[in-house]
Amino acid sequence: MMNDTGTGAIRVRGIRKSYGDLAVLRGVDLDVAQGSIFALLGSNGAGKTTLVRILSTLLPADAGTASVLGSDVADDARRVRETISLTGQFAAVDEVLTGRENLVLVAKLRHLPDPGGVADALLARFRLTDAGGRRAGTYSGGMRRRLDIAMSLVGDPEVIFLDEPTTGLDPEARIEVWDIVKELAGSGRTVLLTTQYLDEAEHLADRIAILHEGGIIADGTLAELKGLLPTARVEYVEKQPTLEEIFLAVTRRDAA
């Protein structure tokens, strides 16, 4: 099932990549609609990060083509880099610098006017203003991840790649990141999210593709993917809260 709605932001055809004798990507096809959240779901080693690195111009493909907002990632890499941002699995912040200094540095590297103003606006947006003067090394995992995503938004990129953005985060920090992702898509940006967490893909994505053994084995909305399975027998049982719901309820009540 290919994406046939909306304006295409990302188009992938026949992408292949091997490391020696190990074939990581075996002919991947994808379409991502502009302004949507697209989840690339797969286990560790499935090739998710390799595909993101190809799309963000950090790694050449062995075969196939890929484009972002109409620009080929191989032939027009500079244009692609001007329109995207990439947040990896681990926060790329400089722990010695303060949160604000990290943002100012990125704004200066992008040659933006008023780097301080850019930094202050992003600190406010990500609820980091009070921590902006502290060294990033003192931040919690959730704060570091919010700062990392804020840094990737310097320059207002149109397409955002988030590679396993909630790895290692506690449940409350994960939900904070989920809220940020939904806000980004709500503002018209396109988000391609890689994850190995099924609940994350189910909660966030407009469309989900499952990458397995180097290829896309399913691609569709959650409803379409559910339709691939036989209809389940309906049984009425008392709904119990999930562990995540319990954790959030008791921790927030204790803080009140």
Average pLDDT works out at: 88
Strand order of the largest sheet: 6-7-8-3-9-10
The class by helix and strand makeup works out as alpha/beta
- What's the number of extended β-strand segments? 10
Radius of gyration: 19 Å
* Percentage of residues assigned to helices: 25-40%
Task: Please describe the biggest sheet, giving its number of strands, its sense, and whether it closes into a barrel.
Answer: 6 strands, mixed
Oligomer: single chain
Overall 3D form: globular
Order of helices and strands: EEEHEEHEHHHEHEHEEHH
Name the poorly predicted regions: 1-6
Would you write up a description of this structure?
The chain is an alpha/beta fold. Helix content is 35%, strand content 25%. The protein is built from nine helices and ten strands. It has a six-stranded mixed sheet, with helices on both faces. The protein has a four-stranded antiparallel sheet with strand order 2-1-4-5, covered by helices on one side. α3 packs across α4. The longest helix is centred in the last third of the chain and has 16 residues. The protein is globular. The N terminus is likely disordered.
SSE topology:
Blueprint (H helix, E strand, L loop, with lengths): L7 E12 L2 E12 L3 E5 L6 H8 L7 E6 L2 E2 L4 H7 E4 L11 H11 L5 H11 L15 H12 L6 E5 L7 H16 L3 E6 L2 H7 L2 E6 L2 E6 L1 H5 L16 H13 L1
Parallel strand pairs: 3-8, 3-9, 6-7, 7-8
Antiparallel strand pairs: 1-2, 1-4, 4-5, 9-10
Helix pairs in contact: 3-4, 5-6
